[in-house]
Fold:
Amino acid sequence: MKLYLESLGCARNQVDSEIMTGRLKKAGWTFTQDPEEAETIVVNTCSFIEEAAQESIDVILELAEYKKEGRCKRLVVTGCLPERYREEILSSLPEVDVILGTGAFEQIAKAVREPEYANMCVLPDPDLTELQPQDAPRDLTVPHVAYLKIAEGCSKSCTYCIIPKLRGKQKSRQPEDIVAEATRLIAGGVNELVLVAQDTTAYGNDLPTRTNLSRLMESLVDIRVDDLNRKTPPWFRVLYGHPESIENSFIEALASHGQLCSYFDIPVQHVSSGILKHMGRRYAKDDLYRLFNRIRKRVPDAVLRTTIIVGFPGETDEDFQELLQFVEDVRFDHLGVFIYSDSDDLASHRLPNHIPKALATDRYHELMSTQSGISTENNRKYIGKAVQVLVEESLDKHLFAGRTNFQAPEVDGLTYINTAKMPFGLKIGGFVDMRVTDTMEYDLMGEPI
Ligand code: SF4
Structure:
């Protein structure tokens, strides 16, 4: 029984796909990378923005062709696309046999095989669904890097964001479940654990025990790696923080433990007070300046990443200039820029003065070119420095690619390691100490030491 699974979207969706894969392998399925060979095809979808929803539909239609030409008997669609468009999906995509919403992943083993699931649309209320059990079987996409989902859903209501509708209100996992899963992953050879949620820095404030992210991180660094037959401790990284929920204890934790990457991923989205108000973000530009200054004061080697939306309804030239000035002032190490993506099921859709795509695109390019100059200069400070690199890929006989603890997976630059002077290669998934010999706009270059 062969199965092909296509995983789309974000890191949190990747975790869901890895757990579905674990459950299906436990149920006896063999996985193939070739959809033509598969009796069953599963597409775990994304619909965060219109473009992602369209990509999901295109992939579903492409894979549905294997029901005509290949061996595919059942096409199962899971995740955020059915959650956003609900029953509409079954009528608009007759090729699909079974639909599982974000609250029904645990039914995957039955959905791919049981006759009674044919033409079923299983969309339980995301607010009522169970969180992943700590011993959920999981099949990692990358054996040495694991996303650790610490909570599901979001209790905030940014006007441009559909996630609370797709994933429900925030539900934090129990800290002991997260620590147990992390221990299992570390024992299995994982060298980087990336903590993810919709709003990681709000972790725990929905739990009766009222724990928080810094307490969780203290418990994670307390995991005794030497009891797990390991010499080097893994890295822990936190993504998707929120300016409204950054506590001093979180900054303190990252300042106090070498295992915790001093990497601050805090999407600000914008800085103009008018735009922030219409986005439903409750902070002001001065709060952000104070926050990033506070972080840099307490963690001198802090690496700052943020994300910004340009072209939000009502964004004036003055608003945009304010944003540009902020980026020039703070000089982020990493910056992600998105063009506002409209949709009639968003609160922001009803705002006046939508920005023409061409103007929004110009603003996107202007911000990215400003950032490219900043990033090039920022990277120069690493020349001659020794850094620890997680080796990820062999590119050539004497060339490997990896990342340092200030480069997050999939979104930041890479580090290239030249091993020409070494008699042997490097272990993929292992750490190597390297001296930086050259830097580029986003990437670094160096030799092992
Ligand atoms: S905090 Fe993030 S996930 Fe939550 S509503 Fe805002 S943008 Fe969406």
Notes: The pocket of iron/sulfur cluster is lined by residues 154, 156-158, 161, 163-164, 198-199, 242 (CB under 6 Å). The chain has three domains: 2-127, 145-380, 386-448. The chain has 13 helices and 19 strands. The CA atoms of residues 111 and 397 lie 45 Å apart.
